[in-house]
Design a protein that fits this description.
Elements: E1 3-8, H1 13-23, E2 29-36, H2 40-50, E3 54-57, H3 63-70, E4 76-79, H4 81-89, E5 94-97, H5 105-112, E6 117-120, H6 123-140, E7 143-146, H7 149-157, E8 166-173, H8 191-194, H9 204-212, H10 214-227, E9 234-238, E10 244-250, E11 255-259, H11 265-273, H12 287-290, H13 304-315, H14 319-335, H15 343-355, H16 359-362, H17 368-391
Parallel strand pairs: 1-2, 1-5, 2-3, 3-4, 5-6, 6-7, 8-9
Antiparallel strand pairs: 8-10, 10-11
Helix pairs in contact: 2-3, 4-5, 5-6, 6-10, 6-14, 10-13, 14-15, 14-17, 15-17
The structure holds nicotinamide-adenine-dinucleotide and magnesium ion.
Length: about 400
């Protein structure tokens, strides 16, 4: 039986890995929607090749280009934010949420309304609006399957287990591009240096977030929101080999670890074939050749983002939305050369400090309007903090 699927963010790193798996078993899938951004050529080529019904770019100004690239193919073309949301309303069995950033939230929420399966790579959805996302899934009887490798690992370690028996969840971190740099050198890290990851091949934004550990900070919050575990039970461990993706510690003292090659097709494939385990085209580990796996405690002086994540997890409410938005704005600032590498955490910390007196905006129920308001406010505050830094 064929399954209908849509891929949001199909032109990105996760999207392309998803397409790779689908292409290997072409007959099993009926592709409804693919979406992308500026890479019209990629989007059109994949839509044509997979026989998608609709291709959407999030950029209004690229509609004519997309139409031209798809002319004569029978694939419908659309552009802009509203078109993206409408595309998510098309009912399918399985949706991949692989847009990067807060922009992934609304399409994901709309896809949940089909009451089917949302494979969630877009961690920002859980960070900014975890309560809303989980509530929406429940209201529609939809299932969310985590695609972040660590969360897929935890999810797999929990199969057949009772969440009540979980004592701790350990999310591993590679330590990113600068894990072995002397601390005093971090301030000079360039965009190019921050954009290359020692173990994983990912999109640029998440690669920089790995170097700063903002990615891990988001993942800690994601863990709390998705598995409903209290913050004091969620830990991070630096594991430079990136082979153990997460560990779940149970009340009898046992750890269940997920071990595998650093290849996102593991987590994507697990979510695609769930509840079955099917063959995947990933490397089989030769542990004898690897010899040893190493672990160390994260250095909070090196990774201030981890400290900030603790504050956000403890506060809950709209703090995740503000944290993510401030981080996104700070990351834009680093990419644009407005601030240095360490400036990103300083900006986010300033924003959180400033908002701590704003309890009205930050506490209470997580609704879409309030998430957007908190996101908007945090971006303004982050931009102000960047301007202050530049003036210094
Ligand atoms: P990427 O930058 O490679 O691709 C992002 C995709 O989103 C592209 O298709 C792009 O066109 C689209 N996009 C960007 N901005 C958009 C906007 N404003 N509106 C609509 N579409 C937009 O990113 P990625 O590395 O594939 O990451 C995607 C998501 O998966 C992120 O949330 C990331 O944190 C998460 N994730 C990625 C990896 C990985 O290995 N790459 C691992 C775990 C989790
Ligand atoms: Mg991850």
């Amino acid at each position: 039986m064929t399954r209908t699927v849509s891929i949001f963010g199909s032109t990105g790193s996760i999207g392309q890995n998803t397409i790779d798996l689908i292409r290997r078993d072409r007959e099993a899938y009926d592709v409804e929607v693919l979406t992308g951004g500026r890479n019209i050529e990629r989007l059109a080529a994949d839509a044509r090749d997979l026989g998608a019904r609709l291709a959407v770019t999030c950029h209004d100004d690229l509609l004519d280009d997309l139409k031209a690239a798809l002319s004569g193919t029978g694939v419908e073309a659309a552009a802009g934010e509203a078109a993206l949301v409408e595309a998510a309303d098309r009912p399918v069995d399985w949706t991949m949420s692989a847009i990067v950033g807060a922009a992934g939230l609304v399409p994901g929420l709309r896809a949940l309304a089909h009451g089917k399966t949302l494979a969630l790579a877009n961690k920002e959805s859980l960070v900014t609006a975890g309560a809303l996302l989980m509530r929406t899934a429940e209201a529609h009887g939809a299932r969310i399957l985590p695609v972040d490798s660590e969360h897929s690992a935890v999810f797999q370690a929990l199969v057949g287990e009772d969440i009540e028996a979980v004592e701790r969840i350990v999310i591993t971190a590679s330590g990113g591009a600068f894990r072995d740099w002397p601390l005093e050198k971090l301030a000079t890290a360039t965009l190019e240096q921050a954009s290359s990851h020692p173990n994983w091949d990912m999109g640029q934004r998440i690669t920089i977030d790995s170097a700063s550990m903002f990615n891990k900070a988001l993942e800690l919050i994601e863990t709390k929101e998705f598995f409903g575990v209290s913050p004091d039970r969620i830990e991070t461990l630096v594991h430079p080999e990136s082979l153990v993706h997460a560990l779940v510690g149970f009340r009898d003292g046992a750890f269940m670890a997920h071990v595998g090659a650093p290849d996102m097709r593991h987590a994507i494939g697990y979510a695609l074939h769930w509840p079955e385990r099917r063959e995947l085209p990933v490397e089989r580990l030769d542990l004898a050749a690897i010899g040893q796996l190493t672990f160390r405690a994260p250095d909070l002086a090196r990774y201030p983002a981890l400290r900030l994540a603790r504050i956000v997890m403890e506060q809950g409410g709209l703090w995740g939305a503000a944290f993510n938005a401030a981080k996104e704005r700070a990351l834009d600032g680093f990419i644009a050369g407005e601030i240095g590498f360490l400036g990103m955490a300083e900006v986010v910390e300033e924003v959180l400090d400033g908002l701590s007196s704003d309890t009205g905006a930050m506490n209470g129920e997580v609704t879409l309007d309030r998430v957007h308001a908190a996101d908007h406010l945090a971006r303004i505050r982050a931009a102000e903090a960047i301007t202050r830094k530049q003036a210094r």
